[in-house]
Amino acid sequence: MEQGHIKINIDGREIIAKEGQSIVQAARDNGIFIPTLCDFKSLQPAGTCRMCLVKVGERYVSACTTIVSQGMSVENESVELKENRKSLIEMLFVEGNHMCPSCEKSGNCQLQALAYRYQMTAPRYPFSFTQRKIDASLPYLVVEHNRCIQCLRCVRGVKAKDGHDIFGFIDRGGAIHISVDTTDTEAATEVIAQKAMDICPVGALIKKGGAYRVPIGERKYDNEVIGSDVEKERDKV
Amino acid sequence: MSKTKLIVATTSLAGCFGCHMSLLDIDERILELVEVVEFNRSPIDDFKEFTKECDLGLVEGGCCNAENVRVLREFREHCKILVAVGQCAITGGLPAMRNGISMKELLEEAYFNGVTVGNKMIPNDEEIPAILDRVYPCHEIVKIDAFLPGCAPRADLIWEVLNRIIEGKSLDNLTYKNFKYD
Ligand code: SF4
Ligand code: FES
Model-level pTM? Predict the structure, then answer.
């Protein structure tokens, strides 16, 4: 084994991981999909959504924030974990107002795509029908609070040119909601609106003027199950 | 001996009839369908009342008024398998966007303040079914046995589900490309 590599096993399958990697990254490198929502590429993981919950020994841990260690044994695909994940997706759907038929992100939304993967029909929890605002005051960006899952991807990933924050959070717990610094001139730019829309896993950040361009049937998750791109690599490793 | 046909009832509650349109969208397969099912209470054959007990009830739309609730309960009573068809039946759908807004504000917007309102008055005839405090998904009113997502559900999904029910098969793992919420 190369220097800096270690062995772990996921669902009984031994894989080689790089030291310092998260379980999610190591799994992905080996063609194993662990569903995620708040985890995004090279951003510092935040562990806010709990979508990636796996079992290490008897403990549940979030796979995006847990670093691999030699000999670690991870459970990912059990019936119990699948059920947990489906239940968590349902909670997210009832917590906000996710009206897929009228959402610009439909077909390209990661929350919806995960719900398709786990075949959610009707959530087992009652819908909250909570009232949240839609802020369309910026020239290029719409902030649809009804759809925000508080993953913090925008806060962590969309920055001004000199690196300062544009997105932030107000309040905590159930009242938590994102806010945009509208006094910042960069917040009003098309570039930032596009970045925000691209980084948001759901339809909470929408760039004005570009919706519904891709016909139904050709959108990202219309035919492709989320995670199947990762799983396709499995046979190659 | 001719096979006994599956007896089917359908209705549209707080829906737009899009789900029924999607059912008709199975195109020429409707000829195959009438070989194996018989419609009872349904807008498709214009039966206004149940004339017999049904094997399957397809419900489009959620409940926004007392009449919707009455019809839904009647469907539950007369149908062995009751299926919520489409996002409105499953989640309340677009009509449920009113949920959380006060009734006063809603009625005033619709009958007084709306830009196209001419004769300003809130309708109050006993013939008009009472409006509910909010729109309810069907499964919050009666027990629902299966859900068919989509707005409207793809015709192919409806076809797949009908066939599985006719064949007595499970509704798990429906075809991915047909299983959509929009
Ligand atoms: S707006 Fe989007 S990216 Fe930002 S926290 Fe909400 S869901 Fe996440
Ligand atoms: S992806 Fe790990 S907690 Fe969100």
Answer: 0.95
